[in-house]
Amino acid sequence: MAAKKISTVLSRSFSSAAAPPCFFSRVRGGAGQSRLIGRYKSTLAAVEDPITPPVSVKYNQLLINGQFVDAASGKTFPTLDPRTGEVIAHVAEGDVEDVNRAVSAARKAFDEGPWPRMTAYERSRIIWRFADLLEKHTDEIAALETWDNGKPYEQAAKIEIPMTVRIFRYYAGWADKIHGLTVPADGPYHVQTLHEPIGVAGQIIPWNFPMLMFSWKVGPALACGNTVVIKTAEQTPLSAVYAAKLFHEAGLPDGVLNVVSGFGPTAGAALASHMDVDKLAFTGSTDTGKIVLELASKSNLKPVTLELGGKSPFIVCEDADVDQAVELSHSAVFFNQGQCCCAGSRTFVHERVYNEFVEKAKARAIERTVGDPFREGIEQGPQVDSDQFEKILRIIRSGVESGANLKAGGDRFGTTGYYIQPTVFSDVQDDMLIAKEEIFGPVQSIFKFKDLDEVIQRSNSTRYGLAAGIFTHNLDTANTLSRALKVGTVWINCYDVFDAAIPFGGYKMSGNGREKGIYSLSNYLQVKAVVTSLTNPAWL
Description:
- The chain is of the alpha/beta class.
- It has 2 domains: 62-308, 3-Layer(aba) Sandwich (Aldehyde Dehydrogenase, Chain A, domain 1); 313-500, 3-Layer(aba) Sandwich (Aldehyde Dehydrogenase, Chain A, domain 2), CATH 3.40.309.
- The protein has 15 helices and 22 strands.
- The strands form 6 sheets. The chain has a 7-stranded mixed β-sheet, with helices on both faces. A 6-stranded mixed β-sheet has the order 11-10-9-12-13-21, with helices on both faces.
- The chain is globular, with a radius of gyration of 24 Å.
- Keywords: NAD, Oxidoreductase.
- Possesses activity on acetaldehyde and glycolaldehyde in vitro.
């Protein structure tokens, strides 16, 4: 069965006229069931007390060598509810000593433990059992994601956790299909290549998709026979440690998967620079990625996979059905509160349809339902924390000050929590801050273009190269653009299609390496050539 695709739920493809599913539809009702706050449609969630999450926090410690332990320092830090800014729980604050303990456990599990010595089929069965347990606990983990992150619960429960399950099942299937080659040589030699696990993998995941990023990294690493130390984002530490506990219930040996919560400059830096970590994978901002790469190079030259920032173009061509293009581009930028590295945040629209598109994009943004993410029908919850909230509002103000036309939004939503109005700018110029900086928020910037040469040049005039969207009937136009755009993924008449088998990664300063699919396996394997001399071989 094909993996669930975000675009099948959030957006309409070029040929589809179906209405979006109920949990992303607009909330409509009689008097007292909906109201306008400012110009924005909302539910009563915006003015009622926050809904009590249907889950409790069971695990708030570090998970090292199969055991829950406090930080060596005894320190904790609060993880906050972005709906209110109130404390959800206090979580163990890992530091250098804790990373050392975790790496030591992972090293022992790799060098002496059963995991890399199991048959690949046995490893596959454990990963598959974990996926079954994860599926069984979807509701609890989705609730933790929403509580900690602010994303709509129905998005987490119906899209992200099922997709996480699918990715682990995908890599469970790969575990016993990893093999080397027999290579012909010029002479009497038998040559074979071995694909060996790389060892201890250090992994640092972001806060915007905690469980999905957990699966993108842990899945291929374990399938290849490695052991893992993963550092969770300080904003969202709750779901990964819950999942890791389920992994041990599935039969994962102690020390194979270790989870450290903590901060980037301490726990993250310790992991990136650790001399006994053989491989590092990081997802986050480009600026932090540079630091991670430097720390890795200054320590033991460990290979590093980086999935970094983006400023992705979404190109609406002159033959577009404007209504469909508006809906798809809306999903491309506003999904997950705009907190997506590949968000289609630069909307390029052909001048022939520009004015119509702008007015309809404005209307769609105004209709977007904002409120408590635990409430049914909500499309947009709060931003993850006060830092992101303030950064987004600062960049929005810069857009106004630089002369862009604010068509919708532009301010906070409500008076409590980190909610921001869905915001649309038109008449955006390429030199404006809103056109250049990764906003990571619910802000759509709409640009006008005249022809393909122009939009190709402008789309590529950025330090980023993560993704792009193209909306057109014309196959020649689609082919021209898809080959000319310097990005790792091009979606044509769709967006945010994330199948387990589709590789994902960037060009330029959006990172290096690929995650998901067969390509990700090479991140966690060493290739060894074994050459044996032959005496009087019958054939060569």
